[in-house]
Each structure stands twice: as C-alpha cells, then as structure tokens.
C-alpha cells in the first residue's frame, strides 16, 4: 500500500475515494494535517492509474461524475458485502462438509473401545453393581493427603502390578446418557484420527490421555470416577490444535463444535451439571492440545 498524494477537505477526500472504489481501485483516506487528507492505494499495479485520476479530480473536483461515483459506490458496497457474506457461508459450509467427509465408518480400534464401554456399562448396570467392576477403578483406596508422594503411593493396586487400572476407568459409565454422549463423540473423533493417521497413533493418544487424566483425578479427588469424556476432550484438543498449526494435516474443528464443548466444559466446572470429574476433562483437553501442538511442529 502506498500514499500517492493529498486531497483538501474531508468531503472531497471521501468523494474521490468512492470514485476510485467504483473504478475497482481499493484505497483508503486518512486525516493527515487538517484540512489535508492522505490518499493510500492498496495495489502497486494501480498506482499510476490512481495518480492520473487524482490529477483529473484536482483540476475539476465539481465534475458531476464524482458525485455519481459516490452514489454508485454506495450501491456497489452493498453488493460486495452480500457477495462476501455468501462467500464466507460457502467456505464454512465447505469446511463442515470436509469434516463430515473425514468421519468414515467406525474404525477398528474405535469400535473396540465402544464395544468394551457398552459391555462394561451393561454388566455393571451403569455402575450400580460396583462389585462387577471393582478391578477397573484406579484404586480401592482414597489418596493419602499428607503429600504428593503419599498420594501416589495410595495407588497400591497399580504399584503391585495391576497397571491396567490407570486406563480402565474410561470404560466405566454411570448412566445411559453418559455412555451415549461419550460414544458418539468417540466414534467421530477416534475414527477420524485412526483413519487419517493409524490405529497405533490412536492407541497411544487414548492411553496417554487416559493415564494422565485418570491419575490427576485420583490424586485430587479419589478413585470413584469413570467415563470416556477425558479422552473425548483430549482427542478434540488434539484435532483442533493439530489442524490450527498444521494446515496440511487435514484436521479441522468447526467453531460451533468448539463453542458447544466449551460451554459444556464450563457448565460442569460451575456445577450446573453435577457429579462430573472435571479434572479428567481439564487434563484430558490440555494433554490432547499439547500433543497436537508437538505433532504439528514436528510435521
């Protein structure tokens, strides 16, 4: 963008700016030192044409064509605004179509996670029959609050070799809606990652997110929790940040999805939705975002 000269008076400056706009020359005028207004041209290719038109305007600013140009500019801006809005709508619709196209039939590992979650829910009557799922909770003991080390040592079963307990709380669900909500998100997010990258990548992501979020929840609040939602938030965070910092990854999360999941997150934190393992959500989301950022930068 380059300044090509000055025009005396605000009304003349805006009049000539509108005239250039109708001629297809993008420009802007700025107050310099009253009553002078600086004229800036956006495209270097149009500098010479704009200078010629400016010289003509200065020689006869009262020419009726400039007034007509201002009226035409007003109509043109309305049309351009409508065209821009339509273009944005097409872009958003197209991106959402890409996201829908990304979601294939359920990928194998994703399907396995869903089947296990459903079976555990049915066997335990959605957590009512705790005796059937005791070995899936991270621990049967509450953490010792005296120190961080003591809290970690409270995971006695894990330290004795039952390492699966770090991950298996993700398969426990305490209600039909809880299960369905998590499985629908897992189906979409997990299948996208598994198909676009690999089953191994999804496995590592799920295990890492589950392990970090489950241990954090246990250390802060004890062992009585379960659900896939921490993993879901982690996978969402991974896809969101990976797509943001690695445009060639093919990942994209629609803004409406981010808004919805953000509102749900804070509704849980504020207690509007009760009995929720908020630490699992927060740590899951942050760990997924961190993994997405690191993956994007390595790419």
Question: Can you give a write-up of this model?
Answer:
By secondary structure, the chain is mainly alpha-helical. The chain has two domains: about 1-90, Alpha-Beta Plaits (2-Layer Sandwich); about 105-299, Rhomboid-like fold (Up-down Bundle). About 65% of the residues lie in helices and about 5% in strands. It contains eleven helices and three strands. The protein has helices spanning about 10-20, 45-60, 65-100, 110-125, 150-155, 155-160, 175-195, 200-220, 230-245, 255-270, 280-299, and strands at about 1-10, 25-30, 35-40. Strands 1-3-2 form a three-stranded antiparallel sheet, covered by helices on one side.
The end-to-end span amounts to 34 Å
Count every beta strand, where a strand is a DSSP E run of 2 or more residues: 3
* CATH class category of the largest domain: Mainly Alpha
Radius of gyration: 30 Å
Share of β-strand residues: 5-15%
H/E series? EHEEHHHHHHHHHH
List low-pLDDT spans: 97-103
Largest beta sheet: strand ordering: 1-3-2
Largest sheet: 3 strands, antiparallel
Helix content: 55-70%
Tally of discrete structural domains:
2
* Inertia-based shape: elongated
């Amino acid at each position: 963008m380059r300044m090509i000269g000055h025009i005396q008076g605000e009304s003349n400056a805006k009049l000539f700016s509108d005239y250039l706009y109708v001629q297809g020359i993008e420009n802007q005028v700025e107050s310099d030192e009253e009553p002078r207004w600086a004229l800036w041209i956006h495209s270097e290719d149009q500098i010479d044409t704009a200078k010629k038109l400016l010289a003509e305007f200065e020689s006869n600013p009262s020419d009726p064509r400039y007034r007509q140009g201002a009226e035409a500019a007003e109509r043109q801006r309305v049309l351009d605004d409508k065209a821009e809005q339509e273009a944005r709508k097409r872009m958003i619709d197209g991106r959402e179509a890409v996201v829908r196209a990304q979601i294939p039939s359920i990928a194998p590992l994703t399907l396995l996670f869903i089947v296990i979650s459903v079976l555990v829910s049915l066997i335990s009557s959605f957590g009512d029959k705790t005796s059937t799922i005791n070995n899936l909770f991270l621990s049967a003991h509450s953490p010792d609050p005296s120190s961080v080390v003591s809290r970690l040592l409270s995971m006695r079963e894990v330290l004795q070799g039952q390492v699966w307990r770090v991950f298996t709380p993700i398969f426990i669900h305490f209600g039909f809606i809880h299960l369905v909500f998590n499985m629908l998100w897992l189906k979409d997010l997990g299948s996208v990652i598994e198909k676009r990258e690999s089953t191994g990548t999804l496995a590592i992501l799920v295990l890492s997110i589950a392990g970090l979020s489950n241990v954090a929840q246990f250390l802060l609040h004890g062992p009585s929790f379960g659900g896939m939602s921490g993993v879901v938030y982690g996978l969402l965070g991974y896809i969101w940040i990976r797509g943001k910092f690695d445009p060639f990854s093919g990942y994209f999360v629609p803004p409406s999805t981010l808004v919805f999941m953000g509102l749900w997150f804070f509704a849980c934190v504020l207690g509007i939705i009760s009995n929720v393992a908020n630490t699992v959500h927060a740590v899951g989301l942050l760990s997924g975002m961190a993994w997405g950022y690191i993956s994007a930068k390595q790419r």
